[in-house]
Design brief:
Strand content: under 5%
Order of helices and strands: HHHHHHHH
Largest sheet: none
Helix content: 40-55%
CATH superfamily of the domain at 11-136: Calponin-like domain
Low-confidence stretches: none
Number of strands: 0
CATH topology of the domain at 11-136: Actin-binding Protein, T-fimbrin, domain 1
Structural class: mainly alpha
Number of helices: 8
Distance between the termini: 61 Å
Radius of gyration: 25 Å
C-alpha cells in the first residue's frame, strides 16, 4: 500500500469505513486456510485484514492458486516486488478467475488489493472461486454451488400464460373508494 498518501477525510472516510465494516476475519481465515490447502504453501492463515493483505499483495500466491485449478492458466508469474509487476500478477489472476467461471460481478479491481482499499471484495472473489473448485476436482470453499434448473415449456403453455393478468396490475374485484380525478382532497 502506498504509505505516502494522505488519509481519506469527510465523506470518503465514511465510505471507506463502510467498506471496511463488511470485512469478516472468520471468513478471511477460512479462505486463507483453503488457499493453503490448495497451493501447499506455508502461509499465515490469520484472518486479520493486514495479514490477508501481506499474504496476497504481490499476486504470486493468487497465480499459484489458479494454476492449481488448471496448469498454465497464468503462464508467467512475476517474482519481482516492483509495483507494476505485482499488479500484473493480480490482473492475470483476475483474468484467469473469469475464465474459470467466476462471474465478473464477483471479482475485484487490482487496486482493491494493491492499495488495500476493498479487501472484502477480494475475499468475495476467492469465495466464489472456492465454489468453482469442485468442477476441477479440488476441495471446495463455502456453500455448494446450485445446480441449473432448466425448464422447458410447450408452445401451448406459453400461449396460455399470455392470457393471465399479473397481480402487479392490481385487481378487478371491488373498487378503490376515495380516488377520483378532479376532486379536491379534504383535509
Amino acid at each position: 500500500m502506498a504509505d505516502y498518501r494522505a488519509g481519506k477525510a469527510g465523506i470518503n472516510a465514511e465510505a471507506q469505513a463502510r467498506i471496511n465494516s463488511k470485512y469478516n476475519n472468520d471468513i478471511a481465515q477460512e479462505t486463507l486456510e483453503w488457499i493453503k490447502q490448495i497451493t501447499g504453501e506455508n502461509i499465515k492463515t490469520d484472518g486479520d485484514a493486514d495479514n490477508l493483505y501481506e499474504v496476497l499483495k504481490d499476486g504470486t500466491l493468487l497465480c499459484k492458486l489458479v494454476n492449481a485449478f488448471q496448469a498454465g492458466t497464468v503462464k508467467k508469474v512475476n517474482q519481482s516486488t516492483m509495483a507494476f509487476k505485482c499488479m500484473e500478477n493480480i490482473n492475470a489472476f483476475l483474468e484467469a478467475v473469469v475464465k474459470l467461471g467466476v462471474p465478473a460481478q464477483e471479482t475485484f479491481q487490482t487496486i482493491d488489493l494493491w492499495e488495500k482499499q476493498n479487501l472484502y471484495s477480494v475475499v468475495i472473489c476467492l469465495q466464489s472461486l472456492g465454489r468453482k473448485a469442485g468442477n476441477f476436482n479440488l476441495p471446495t470453499l463455502g456453500p455448494k454451488e446450485a445446480d441449473k434448473n432448466v425448464r422447458e415449456f410447450s408452445e401451448e403453455q406459453l400461449k396460455a400464460g399470455q392470457n393471465v393478468i399479473s397481480l402487479q396490475y392490481g385487481t378487478n374485484k371491488g373498487q378503490q373508494s376515495g380516488i377520483s380525478f378532479g376532486n379536491r382532497r379534504q383535509m
